[in-house]
Amino acid sequence: MKTTATGFLPEYHPDAPEVSLARDVVITEDDNRLDLSLIRGSVRIGGRVTFQGKALRHVPIVVERLTSTGELDYYATLFTDPDGAWSVPTWAGEYRVSSTYSGPASAPVDLAPRGPNGEGVTVSTTDVLGLDRNLTSGVIRGRVTGAGEPIPAAVRLFAAVPAPKAPYTELCLNVASAPVDADGYYAAVGLTPRGYYVVAEPAEETSGLYIPEAYPDAPVGCGAPSVAVGGAEAAPIDLDLARVRSSPPSSESPSSSPSPTTSPSESPSQSPSQSPSPSPSVSPSVSPAPDTGVRPWLIGVPRVGGVLAVLTWPRPGTIVGRQWLRDGTPIPGATGLLYRVRAVDRHTHLSARLTYSRADGSTTTVTRRTLLVR
């Protein structure tokens, strides 16, 4: 059993810095109360992440510790602060620090120096700070708001790739993602050079209130102008989501009214979307749930070091959001197409939750079967 808390050293039962030194927790028929006392770390490892000399905010960072058996063990996930700084309390040992893996179009970026043979940073009895990294390319960052105010949201990067078979010639795939902080800021790093379609969508708790959109102010998908990565990227990519309209505006043409009495020949059961008027549906409550098509499937090797993938066929006008789960609980930062199984996943059940969102705010959520990591 591993216990973690912000500002304290994570530990395995009982008081062990790594899983190889831990002992099993035996469940009996008696009272299974287990009191825990974490240590507030006195030694820290930390640094600062910048992009072209400017602070890079909310970069997801993963810290791994090299165990006594020579394996990399997940240690902590954290984000850079508004000044681009990060730090975490540590046990003595060797650590590796990188940006988190966010999808097949990105690669983890080392945020701490490596030795000639790939050695990490060694921590003993004093702080190891000043692990600064200035990135010069491979970054898309900015801010997401809803009607001008920060909202719970997510950013997904799409790319047009050749289709593997007819009748499609091109697919629009979600190839990377970035979480958004409480003030709306996000940063995706380690991106391979290409053009990306930047899409912001509301989080689950606000999915019925705001309309997803692609930058700049375009419908979702791969039809908007792409954002080039690989050159001298400079300007932040900001998106402001519009609110979902709950009723038709007063200037709406009578021909788009959902009332069945507007035309004697119109059937009362007829949906407003069947009206010959070119106007779009004016109420999200009458739109059907997103068509998810063929159910997504989960593939891969459920072993430490293996890679899992959750696949689904793209549907026109629909954004697919992914969230990997460990024993039913969301894994921080794990929102990409692929997920690399870590040591912390051993003996747990991994699954993926997919959320299909349409521009009118309607959503459908599907959770795929679990895989036991051995």
Question: In a few lines, what is going on in this structure?
Answer:
The protein is mostly beta strands. The protein has strands at 2-3, 11-12, 44-51, 54-55, 60-66, 72-79, 85-89, 93-99, 121-123, 133-135, 140-146, 149-150, 153-162, 170-179, 185-188, 194-202, 213-214, 227-229, 239-241, 297-300, 307-311, 318-326, 329-330, 338-340, 349-358, 363-367, 371-372.
Descriptive overview:
The chain has 374 residues and is mostly beta strands. The chain has three domains: 2-135, Immunoglobulin-like (Sandwich), CATH 2.60.40; 140-241, Immunoglobulin-like, CATH 2.60.40; 297-372, Immunoglobulin-like, CATH 2.60.40. Helices cover 0% and strands 37% of the residues. It is built from no helices and 27 strands. The protein has strands at 2-3, 11-12, 44-51, 54-55, 60-66, 72-79, 85-89, 93-99, 121-123, 133-135, 140-146, 149-150, 153-162, 170-179, 185-188, 194-202, 213-214, 227-229, 239-241, 297-300, 307-311, 318-326, 329-330, 338-340, 349-358, 363-367, 371-372. The strands form seven sheets. Strands 13, 14, 16, 17 and 18 form a five-stranded antiparallel beta sheet that branches. Strands 22, 23, 25, 26 and 27 form a five-stranded antiparallel beta sheet that branches. Strands 3, 4, 7 and 10 form a four-stranded mixed beta sheet that branches. A hairpin with a 2-residue loop joins β22 and β23 (329-330). Mean pLDDT is 78; it is low at 247-294.
